[in-house]
Specification:
Radius of gyration: 23 Å
Protein name: Rieske 2Fe-2S domain-containing protein
Shape: globular
Organism: Phenylobacterium terrae
Largest sheet: 8 strands, antiparallel
Oligomer: single chain
Structural class: alpha+beta
Number of helices: 5
Strand order of the largest sheet: 12-18-17-16-15-14-13-19
Helix content: 10-25%
Keywords: 2Fe-2S, Iron, Iron-sulfur, Metal-binding, Oxidoreductase
InterPro entries: Cholesterol_7-desaturase (IPR050584), Rieske_2Fe-2S (IPR017941), Rieske_2Fe-2S_sf (IPR036922), VanA_C_cat (IPR044043)
């Protein structure tokens, strides 16, 4: 096994609605959220994480707990030492740590107290910035100090400069329930009944082709459904492709001639019962120049309707019922569970991931 490879027997087996995938990239923040010298506390997979940017502009992530007395390092400050090295100082006793996690100094030590402080470390999380997004690698092995053997995804349609829309919301649900709700094709007419989107009375049979994609699957490029009125604002003859990738990334790439719209939804588990939803839209379509306030309001309403339904669903989930999955409307949810199991098994067994999704045409009514 190559040095730094994270594919070890540590990756746990996980069931639906419990546990998390590891040895994988999680969306953490927008690049613009991180300011040089600023220390910010996040929680991902139930772990406190200090996410910051050095004075030189490089993003980094450390476990947000000082190993001395457990104070959050994010409450301290980032400084530059005489040798030019940037360090995070704990607010409690001033212990200093490099952005690689290694302790550089314990101020309370006196000259004749021999101690190799470099042996003291806080957990370091690999970080990648890509297309204005910040991803954090969560390894199954908390002692992992190498570099990941895979890279975060890149997305088509990141055009028109920075994002046109950004919206965030926390769902009171495990990421599995949030993901399944996100990809559910049959709830739209009941949960989302805005006049500008679609009516519950406009349901009809649908058949969509799906193909496996890297660590996920896609509803291959097609004309949007005729009862989806929102696409009308784009004019022309739009084509759309919707892709999902574990652990929780879903994007819709719409093209109208040479113009593009990319709507990316990132699901980040805060802990077992809370998931952060970040909705990001890029576009070079003129509709976003004139109708941005209306589009933003619609997107917010859409997300909050989903959040309200998650809260309603929790009223039933608290009794731990057996869930009934049907074909074809629930096939994407089944694929998600298969993808999770295969990813965890591949990492546990130290072998390449084999996508379990096969090409298929799914049919449902909505």
């Amino acid at each position: 096994m190559p040095e730094g490879d994270t594919r070890q027997s540590r990756a746990p087996q996980i069931g639906f609605g419990e546990g998390f995938l590891t040895d994988i990239w999680y969306f953490a923040a927008l690049a613009g959220d991180l300011k040089p010298g600023k220390l910010q506390r996040y929680e991902i997979l139930g772990e406190p994480i200090l996410l910051g940017r050095t004075l030189g502009g490089e993003a980094y992530a450390l476990r947000d707990i000082c190993p001395h007395r457990a104070a959050p390092l994010s409450a301290g400050r980032l400084t530059r030492e005489a040798d030019g090295r940037e360090v995070v100082s704990c607010p409690y006793h001033g212990w200093r740590f490099g952005t690689d996690g290694a302790c550089t100094a314990i101020p309370s030590l006196v000259g004749d107290q021999a101690m190799d402080v470099s042996k003291i470390r806080v957990r370091r999380y690999p970080v990648r910035e890509s297309q204005g997004l910040v991803f954090v690698w969560i390894s199954a092995d908390p002692r992992f100090s190498g570099e990941p053997d895979v890279e975060p995804p890149t997305f088509p349609g990141v055009v028109g400069g920075g994002p046109k829309l950004v919206d965030r919301m926390d769902f009171e649900a495990h990421i599995d329930h949030a993901v399944v709700g996100l990809m559910d094709p049959a709830h739209g007419p009941y949960v989302h009944q805005q006049w500008w989107w679609r009516s519950s009375k406009s349901q009809h049979d649908k058949a969509k082709k799906f193909e496996p994609r890297e660590a996920g699957f896609a509803m291959v490029r097609h004309e949007p459904s005729k009862n989806s009125r929102a696409y009308a604002i784009l004019g022309g003859e739009p084509l759309t492709e919707i892709t999902f990738r574990i652990p929780g990334l879903r994007w819709e790439h719409v093209t109208v001639g040479a113009r593009q719209v990319l709507s990316l939804t990132c699901l980040t588990p805060i802990h077992e019962k809370k998931t952060r939803i970040t909705q990001i839209v890029w576009s070079d379509h003129p509709a976003f120049w004139f109708l941005k306030p209306f589009i933003a309001a619609g997107a917010r309403a859409f997300l909050r309707q989903d959040g309200d339904m998650v809260n309603l669903q929790n009223e039933g989930l608290k009794y731990d019922p057996t869930l009934l999955w049907i074909d074809d409307a629930d096939t994407q949810a089944k694929w998600y569970q298969q993808l999770k199991r295969e990813w965890a098994a591949a990492r546990r067994e130290g072998r390449p991931f084999v996508n379990p999704v096969k090409p298929a045409t799914l049919r449902w009514r909505s």
